[in-house]
Write a structure and sequence with these properties.
Blueprint: H1 7-23, H2 28-35, H3 39-43, H4 51-60, H5 65-70
Amino acid sequence: MAQFRDQELLDRIAARLKDLREEKGMSQEDVYNETDIHIARIETAKVNVSVSTLSKLCAYFRISLTEFFRKIEK
């Protein structure tokens, strides 16, 4: 089964995650050390991020998935 890739959506997700991280004054390494998630790969929009990974990152940044997606709606 082929995997679908919406580059525009991935770019918006990447930008939102980068904004959240920078708002907290954190480096990509800080996030990795605390979550075991390579956020750098997600922030470059080179990978399809899973819902589970995105959920973990939202919990880490203390926002809901709804709030996260509200900011990136088309």
